[in-house]
Fold this protein.
Amino acid sequence: MTRPPLTVVIAVMALAGRAPAAPAKLAALAPGPNNQDARQAVAVGPNGQAYEPDGKGAWIRHHPGGLADDVVRATRAGALVIAGVESGPPYAYRVAKDGAWNMIVLGLHAKAIVGRGPRATAAFGKLVFGLDTGVPVKLADAPDPIALIAAAGKSVVVQTDKGLARLDAKGWKPIANAPKQVIALLDDRWALVDRGLLDLRANKLTAWPSGFRVASVVAVTNELVVAAGGRELVTLKGGKLERTAISMQLAAPIVSVVADKAGRVVVATRDGEIAVRDKAGAWTAGELRDDLPAARPGSPPAESP
């Protein structure tokens, strides 16, 4: 019997063992630049897969680069997407460039917390950094090791094991009448607590509507907070709460929501579904796809030190 050439055997074995491409997964949305247009958000996968908007309703991954760590949060500083990971420093990705994630060095073996809110920040122990340009600028040290951080404008709020404190022009001060712990700090005014949103300035709770279960929440401005959960959107604007349906079939749990002042909203699910609401309130499905260059030898994913 005639044997097939060795090259043919190898090719057949490679094809037989090649697994189909796994469906895209998402971990976070980084808002559009300066929160001006939610449709310019960048969708980030669990290991730094970056999907950039094409302006026509699709989010496309142009670069194979990623991260070895698990992404837990993403924020924005101008053209930079900043990712917080499970156990390492932040990383920065410049939109529409070479697709590389670059480590933001905060300290030796830093396990940093990337902050929430319109201003990009990070914390490492008691150290606090502004990331407005992607280059860390050290701010005043917090009184104790930081567990949560958020910022807007020049004001920074943190949670430590002794409670909540605010950094302003006069330094760090405890936030009067605030609970010792919250679920999340959203910016320098709003915090997520068990039953709703807490205004840290007025010490006033706005409770969620009956039956609503929040999955992701974002403070767009000091006067606008948007939350998504189940198949609903809850908006707090100017002290008034509005509850609306996400009129799309989303099969997977929501992992992230971004919004802008004009009323546009983007919602992402764990399994790569994207729902987009326009200014008029109409929902459409966004498309998530890969458009990667041919594979070639290169650097491995960025890793924590």
Summary: Confidence is low (pLDDT under 50) at residues 1-21. The CA atoms of residues 30 and 76 lie 6 Å apart. The helical segments are 6-17.
